[in-house]
């Protein structure tokens, strides 16, 4: 256990950040899952904008790596474009 006051504070802050990051990460994963389940191209296109915004925010905050964010956005865009082209 930490002995210095500043170290104790850092432990509290990192625990709070970890919980917040877990929440936003899980929320984004759920939004990605919901987007993948959509079968309509138009509806998926509308939802894609929101999901991409969530992924960008995670990358900006450092929750996920920027390359992982780019890969996720690319895969989701390809999936949505395929749905739109199929109609």
Structure overview:
- By secondary structure, this protein is mainly α.
- Helices cover 86% and strands 0% of the residues.
- The chain is built from 3 helices and no strands.
- Helix 1 packs antiparallel against helix 2 and helix 2 runs antiparallel to helix 3.
- The longest helix is centred in the N-terminal third of the chain and has 33 residues, at 5-37.
- It is elongated and about 65 Å long.
- The termini are far apart.
- The model has no long low-confidence stretch (mean pLDDT 94).
Helix content: over 70%
Give a short account of the largest sheet.
Answer: none
The number of strands is: 0
Shape category: elongated
Number of discrete helical segments: 3
The structure class reads: mainly alpha
The low-confidence runs, each spanning 5 or more residues with pLDDT under 50, are none
Radius of gyration, in Å, reads 17 Å
> How big a fraction of the residues is strand?
under 5%
What order do the helices and strands follow?
HHH
Q: Please tell me the overall pLDDT.
A: 94
First-to-last CA distance: 60 Å
Short description:
The chain is built from three helices and no strands.
List strands and helices in order, with pairings:
Elements: H1 5-37, H2 41-61, H3 66-86
Helix pairs in contact: 1-2, 2-3
